[in-house]
């Protein structure tokens, strides 16, 4: 049976996160999932107070998560790190606001995680996807415009779906994008993208819009398109083109960065275009380009052959 006290603490913590605006809705959802699952584990042990949670309980819980006995599948070090982060934040809140003196997570270190190189598409694959849309059809014109804009400007899918018409400055060929942490950045787009956006606004958006709300990309009912719609639409396009990859919109952002660096763009410029606070986040793309260069030399250089 669930403990009302434990659940109330979780609800109050989530409300605190929301009111203090210290996390996005995705962060809040992650906290809810992680802590709710931990509470379920505590209940299975007949632990009814956070004061009674020991370091051993936390260690056992993480071990069960890791081997899949909780949750049904094994989890990675990055997932374990997120769980630790959620529990740390939760117990800090309990210590500060609910007079809980116990903090069993204190002193635990995150496991080391290896940075996974981002998946990206070749230029030919990007062009195949973009050219798979029949822009004589208003819906296909919109979909092509969405993907072209994401690739042209290296946008996160949420940045694309929340673009406003007024964010597109055709005279200067730039977008004004509101990114993570409500930080604004200016991103140039190439002329072909600008022509496509004009065509979309004139020939498709004008048909779909019922009541003006300012959002650039809209569904046939006139509402702003969702992130999920873009995910499914790109996946369908990849299937049409026979691309043997699990496509997702962020892959176009990865491709944008990789293709720029492949063609000699300065790393700090790419950092600014992507809206990365830390240069190290952008540097992961240099590993991709270096790995590709090594592969070419290994395959093609006569002295590389055994």
DSSP strand content: under 5%
How many β-strands, per DSSP? 3
Which regions are unreliable across 5 or more consecutive residues at pLDDT < 50? Answer: none
- The multimeric state of the shown protein is single chain
Short description:
With 306 residues, the protein is mainly alpha-helical. 58% of the residues lie in helices and 4% in strands. A hairpin with a 4-residue loop joins strand 1 and strand 2.
Task: Please provide a written account of the structure.
This protein is mainly alpha-helical and 306 residues long. It has two domains: 4-97, Orthogonal Bundle (DNA polymerase, domain 1), CATH 1.10.150; 123-299, hpI Integrase, Chain A. The protein has twelve helices and three strands, in the order H-H-H-H-H-H-H-E-E-E-H-H-H-H-H. A three-stranded antiparallel β-sheet has the order 1-2-3, with no helix packed on it. Strand 1 (168-169) and strand 2 (174-178) form a beta hairpin. The radius of gyration is 24 Å and the shape is elongated. Keywords: Cell cycle, Cell division, Chromosome partition, Cytoplasm, DNA integration, DNA recombination, DNA-binding. GO terms for molecular function: DNA binding; tyrosine-based site-specific recombinase activity. Forms a cyclic heterotetrameric complex composed of two molecules of XerC and two molecules of XerD. One of its GO terms (cellular component) is cytoplasm.
């Amino acid at each position: 049976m669930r403990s009302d006290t434990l659940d109330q603490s979780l609800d109050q913590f989530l409300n605190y996160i929301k009111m203090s605006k210290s996390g996005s809705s995705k962060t809040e959802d992650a906290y809810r999932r992680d802590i709710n699952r931990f509470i379920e584990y505590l209940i299975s042990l007949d632990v009814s107070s956070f004061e009674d949670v020991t370091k051993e309980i936390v260690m056992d819980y993480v071990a069960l998560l890791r081997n899949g006995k909780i949750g049904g599948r094994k989890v990675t070090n990055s997932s374990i790190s997120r769980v630790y982060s959620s529990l740390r934040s939760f117990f800090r809140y309990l210590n500060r606001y609910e007079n809980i003196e116990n903090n069993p997570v204190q002193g635990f270190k995150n496991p080391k995680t290896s940075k996974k190189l981002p998946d990206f598409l070749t230029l030919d694959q990007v062009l195949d996807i973009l050219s798979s849309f029949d822009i004589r059809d208003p819906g296909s014109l919109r979909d092509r415009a969405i993907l072209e804009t994401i690739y042209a400007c290296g946008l996160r899918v949420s940045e694309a779906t929340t673009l406003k018409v007024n964010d597109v400055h055709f005279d200067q060929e730039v977008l004004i994008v509101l990114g993570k942490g409500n930080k604004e950045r200016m991103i140039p787009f190439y002329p072909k993208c600008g022509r496509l956006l004009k065509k979309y606004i004139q020939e498709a958006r004008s048909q779909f819009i019922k009541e003006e709300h300012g959002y650039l990309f809209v569904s046939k009912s006139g509402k702003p398109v969702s992130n999920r719609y873009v995910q499914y639409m790109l996946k369908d396009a990849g299937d049409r083109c026979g691309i043997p990859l699990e496509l997702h919109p962020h892959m176009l952002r990865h491709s944008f960065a990789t293709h720029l660096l492949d063609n000699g763009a300065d790393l700090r410029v790419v950092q600014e275009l992507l809206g990365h606070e830390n240069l190290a986040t952008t540097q992961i793309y240099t590993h991709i380009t270096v790995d590709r260069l090594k592969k070419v030399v290994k395959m093609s250089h006569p002295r590389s052959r055994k």
